[in-house]
Amino acid sequence: MTVTIYHNPACGTSRNTLEMIRQSGEEPEVVEYLKAPPSRERLIELIHAMGIRPRDLLREKGTPYAELGLGNQTLSDDALLDAMMAHPILINRPIVVTDKGAALCRPSEKVLPLLANPVATFTKEDGETCRRHPGMIPTLVATAVDDPAGLVGLLSAAGLPTEDVAEPGRVFLRYATEDGEFVGIGGFEPLGAAVLLRSIVVVPEQRGRGVGGAIAADLMQRGRGQGAADAFAFTTGERTFLAALGFRRVERTEAPAAVLATRQAMGLCSASAVLWRKETAR
């Protein structure tokens, strides 16, 4: 496996990530990006590979972030890229790229799904011990659903709405492990600055292994790639994986008009359905 880490040796999170990679049996290419900053083109490639926006990669602490007025939400992506090229310290770290994908590894254990044989237990510099989940799912492979009837059947069996699945503006994905084992489905509706997650179903034999959370995280990343700053979801049953991902229960008054105008909000989900919200970049 090829592993590259964009590293700052002065950063504890970056040092922990590097050591976690090495204890997993990989010797990465180490790029000390403050000494050898990536080109603008490479930085854009990394941002796209991670499925984030330039703003998501900005580091505030110990940088000229405030001095440069980078908190101004009207600044364009190009302006933020210009700032990172002029001041590489603004690039958050560590970024890890492997054959499985790319991620900003904060916290450092975010590197584990990117590795072929991730270390089972690791003690960080501050004494915190992190453990690989015993049922940790490898990187999921998503493809467009090519069996509408099968999709409807899975949703119906899970008690989820099916009346609008053929309407435009919905994206449904089939998820499998890298060896082709089907694990579930998920869908989303891009709504500009928001994305509505929906139709997340995990096959029974895969439940309790973090698959639902992995699917939801992938859907959020896709929504973020289309400009969504906030993710929403309606649930009628217990969806603990949403809380584990940092979603919080909110009143419908907190939802933007685009979410309230969806078929789910206007009747497909019951009036008692719980609404969840999370910023996609967190």
From TrEMBL:
<protein>
    <recommendedName>
        <fullName>Arsenate reductase</fullName>
        <ecNumber>1.20.4.1</ecNumber>
    </recommendedName>
</protein>
<dbReference type="Pfam" id="PF03960">
    <property type="entry name" value="ArsC"/>
</dbReference>
<dbReference type="Pfam" id="PF00583">
    <property type="entry name" value="Acetyltransf_1"/>
</dbReference>
<dbReference type="GO" id="GO:0008794">
    <property type="term" value="F:arsenate reductase (glutaredoxin) activity"/>
</dbReference>
<keyword id="KW-0059">Arsenical resistance</keyword>
<dbReference type="InterPro" id="IPR036249">
    <property type="entry name" value="Thioredoxin-like_sf"/>
</dbReference>
<feature type="domain" description="N-acetyltransferase">
    <location>
        <begin position="135"/>
        <end position="281"/>
    </location>
</feature>
<dbReference type="InterPro" id="IPR006659">
    <property type="entry name" value="Arsenate_reductase"/>
</dbReference>
<dbReference type="GO" id="GO:0046685">
    <property type="term" value="P:response to arsenic-containing substance"/>
</dbReference>
<keyword id="KW-0560">Oxidoreductase</keyword>
<dbReference type="InterPro" id="IPR000182">
    <property type="entry name" value="GNAT_dom"/>
</dbReference>
<dbReference type="InterPro" id="IPR006660">
    <property type="entry name" value="Arsenate_reductase-like"/>
</dbReference>
<comment type="similarity">
    <text>Belongs to the ArsC family.</text>
</comment>
<dbReference type="GO" id="GO:0016747">
    <property type="term" value="F:acyltransferase activity, transferring groups other than amino-acyl groups"/>
</dbReference>
<dbReference type="InterPro" id="IPR016181">
    <property type="entry name" value="Acyl_CoA_acyltransferase"/>
</dbReference>
